[in-house]
Amino acid sequence: MDSTSLEPSLYTVKAVFILDNDGNRLLSKYYDPELYPSMKEQKNFEKNVFNKTHKADNEIAFLEGMTIVYKSSIDLFFYVVGSAQENELMLMSVLNCMFESLSQILRKNVERRCLLDNMEGVFLIVDEIIDGGVILESDPQQVLQKVNYRADENPLSEQSVAQVLQTAKEQIKWSILK
Known about the structure:
alpha+beta
């Protein structure tokens, strides 16, 4: 090993991706352009990772010179990838932050359909946690506060439906009075 690979670096995360229970990509962000430069190489790497981890009952794997921490929930697999000498606890804190933040915005219903329905929130969360491979935040409450996404804000809640009905009544009333 050369000495440059052992120097500390802020660029700790090489990739983040979420796969469904068939190994299909739902979200992926690669932060090291030299790691897997083409889409084909990325999907091949994800397929290899999925094949190694989808039946295992572990939280960490080493594959192709990478440290991979992962977690599964119902029909989803969450992965955070770092270099071989990366601290597993740092990667696991990123994974846990991402999972807990998603769990909050998905109302504890972390499954494929809900994830796809809230993809904009998923991207915001990933971008708040990691920027260009640098870990920015590992506290789920801080991430949720930064993205202004609260679990009690549902666009179709009873209150917002009542507000829509009230606005419609007012518009009808004003159009009749004219």
